[in-house]
Design brief:
The complex is a heterodimer of chains A (285) and B (357). Chain A is mainly alpha-helical and 285 residues long. In chain A, 77% of the residues lie in helices and 0% in strands. Classes of the chains: A mainly alpha (285), B alpha/beta (357).
């Protein structure tokens, strides 16, 4: 938004009293170009070797369609679950003092630090029919490892910190006086939570959701061990890209990648718009 | 910190220059080619190999370095990189400076010859035995005592038998598995349509498609999934040694495929680096008695069995082995027909997880 208003005047307004705008702006643009825009540009350029028609054909082939549905569907579900569960975890970590709180706080970051392949192998070991949890579920007829459910578990694992870490600081900054004011004005506890606290947390939760979703869509390392990788059932889109590469089909691989990129971009944009709306609607955070 | 604080008083032109030089520095930094930091002494060569050969080439490289030192007085380092065969070929095509490649199948070296033109198309005729200093074959691993009574390939197509094999699209070894099953049924019925149905029946029994041979070994042995695991002969023996003969047995089918993992000199690289003589000597060494002995000790079938320890050779039962050239008309043809996009393997799977009938 701010960029558009600048563009109408055709010169950059000095936006703050702090000097160094030219320096930092130049750096930011260069950095973003080198790290994000140029690699993605090359990706799209390589995929364009197929032409729009070829791209459309790749996107609508049943196997790619099944993989895309799986990847985005399960990622959405995992991010949604974490939006709720992560909020609860963040709530517990910021609002209550209990022994071992710092330890628990540090544990939240582990999925960030662990190499994803290690996470995948560990989760598979636990959720396989002969593993601790898998062994308990097997008599009930529930299979986790080597099914789409396994993919869901892996994605929930790797995307949890994103929600917790975005909600936590906002929650910590939330003034308790607001809650007290709400109570003195006669609101019930449920009303306070639903109409006072949650709305001000919503933008942060949405950001966390978007980060978790984006991370989950691109995840390969951990999923590949637990998925079973059966075509049309538990084959994720990133695996299809790897398969194309194994066949030296660079155009095909970049085509699927470009499609994923487009879908991810549209979904993230949509989330950002909802977030901007909720910020306007609910307030200041 | 001092610099930062003083920067608040820098006049405009200085700021501009600073901004410019920062951008320039960032650009230059990005232009440094990471990963190719080769401080190459004249006597180091790179061998790009496939996944299960770690133990083999570790032993061979040591023996070769010792012999080269004795012969020429020169110390030689051999860097060996391992990974899925197809992926390794791709890194060479994309510019990894490999002096020699030792991959799981000829198709992958063909790809390097065709796509990057780093070696001539007739590379496979340059060394004995189709450029394969050792061969291997495809066998079965079953649970201890063979509870499902698996004796041969047709037992794998039976309903109720769970078969573990990696995805032939991502694993070179899995392509040998697939072709061996096909060759078995073709040999029995002489009917390609029946062979296709047979292979489909086997893949109907596959509950997990791992991306590589090592992943499948884990799925079968550690996770306890499946009744039978189709495996490289050397991986089967390695798994037996690693996980214990009290948990798994090896079963040899009546017929299998002669897997020839080939080796080749990458001409364009050795000529640029001036390592041709050394690299050639390294490949010749693979056929020499010392290396052939190591080959057999690592559960690969040596090209010159007379050089190997008879005790090692006794571990290889005789079975009928067919070649890919005789049954499938060579790798290029088999690859295009069975494993390429839209090939026979792709057509086994149908939307919704059902199978072609």
């Amino acid at each position: 938004m701010s960029l558009a208003t600048h563009a109408t005047t055709f010169r950059f307004r000095q936006p703050s009293a702090l000097p160094g705008f030219g320096l930092t702006f130049g750096f930011a643009v260069t950095y973003l170009s080198l790290i994000v825009l140029i690699p993605l540009g090359v990706l799209v350029a390589r995929a364009s070797g197929l032409g729009l028609e070829g791209l459309w054909q790749t996107a609508t082939s049943p196997r790619v369609l099944a993989a895309l549905k799986l990847s985005f569907g399960v990622s959405f579900a995992a991010a949604a679950v974490n939006a709720v569960a992560g909020l609860v975890v963040a709530w517990v970590l910021t609002r209550y003092a209990f022994p071992g709180r710092r330890l628990l706080d540090a544990i939240v970051d582990l999925p960030f630090a662990l190499p994803t392949a290690v996470a995948g192998i560990a989760l598979t070991a636990i959720y396989a029919p002969n593993g601790w949890i898998g062994g308990l579920l097997a008599p009930l007829g529930v299979k986790v490892a080597y099914t789409p459910l396994g993919i869901f578990v892996a994605l929930v694992f790797i995307s949890l910190p994103f929600v917790v870490r975005t909600v936590q600081p906002v929650l910590a900054d939330l003034d308790r006086e607001i809650e007290e004011a709400s109570a003195t004005l006669g609101a019930s506890r449920a009303q306070t939570v639903l109409r006072v606290i949650l709305p001000s947390l919503l933008p942060a939760v949405l950001t966390g959701f978007a980060l978790a979703f984006g991370r989950a869509v691109g995840e390969y390392g951990s999923v590949i061990f637990i998925a079973g990788n059966m075509p049309f059932v538990s084959e994720i889109a990133p695996l299809l890209i790897v398969i194309q590469l194994e066949e030296f089909n660079y155009a095909g691989a970049t085509a699927i990648a470009t499609i994923m990129l487009a879908i991810a971009f549209v979904s993230l944009l949509a989330i950002n718009l909802i977030q901007a709306w909720s910020r306007r609607r609910f307030g200041h955070v | 910190m001092m610099h930062l604080r003083r920067s608040t008083r820098w006049p405009g032109p200085v700021r501009g220059v600073l901004a410019y030089s920062l951008v320039l520095a960032a650009t230059l930094l990005a232009a440094i080619p990471f990963g190719h930091a080769q401080r190459a002494p004249a006597v180091a060569i790179t061998n790009v190999s496939y996944d299960p050969t770690r133990e083999l080439y570790k032993a061979i490289n040591e023996a070769f370095a010792k012999e080269w030192l004795a012969r020429t007085g020169q110390t030689v380092t051999i860097r060996t990189s391992h990974g899925g065969s197809g992926r390794q070929a791709r890194t060479v095509i994309d510019g990894l400076q490999a002096d020699v490649v030792t991959l799981a199948l000829a198709a992958d070296i063909d790809a390097i010859a065709q796509r990057a033109k780093l070696l001539p198309a007739d590379w496979q005729a340059r060394l004995p035995n189709n450029s394969s200093p050792y061969t291997s074959t495809i066998v079965f691993l079953v649970r201890k005592g063979n509870p499902k009574g698996i004796r041969d390939w047709d037992d794998l197509a039976r309903p109720g038998v769970a078969v573990i094999t990696p995805n032939p699209k991502t694993s070179g070894g899995a392509r040998w598995n697939y072709l061996a099953a096909w060759a078995f049924e073709l040999d029995r019925t002489k009917d390609p349509a029946k062979a296709k149905a047979f292979v489909e029946a086997i893949y109907r029994n596959v509950p997990v498609l791992d991306t590589g041979a090592r992943g499948s070994t884990t799925t079968f042995v550690q996770r306890g999934i499946g009744d039978v695991f189709i495996s490289w002969e050397n991986e089967a023996h390695l798994a037996l040694a690693e996980f214990g003969a009290d948990r798994i047995d090896i079963v040899y089918p009546s017929l299998s495929i002669l897997a020839e993992p080939p080796v080749a000199l990458v001409d364009a690289v050795v000529d640029r680096r001036g390592t041709r003589k050394l690299a050639e000597a390294y490949l010749d060494f693979l056929y020499a008695p010392t290396a052939q002995r190591i080959v057999a000790a690592n559960f690969y079938r040596p090209f010159r069995p007379e050089a190997a320890d008879p005790a090692d050779l006794a571990r290889f039962p005789r079975l009928k082995l067919v070649t890919i050239d005789a049954v499938f008309g060579g790798w290029a043809k088999a690859q295009g027909e069975h494993f390429a996009e839209g090939g026979v393997f792709d057509r086994i799977y149908r939307p919704g997880g059902s199978f072609a009938r």
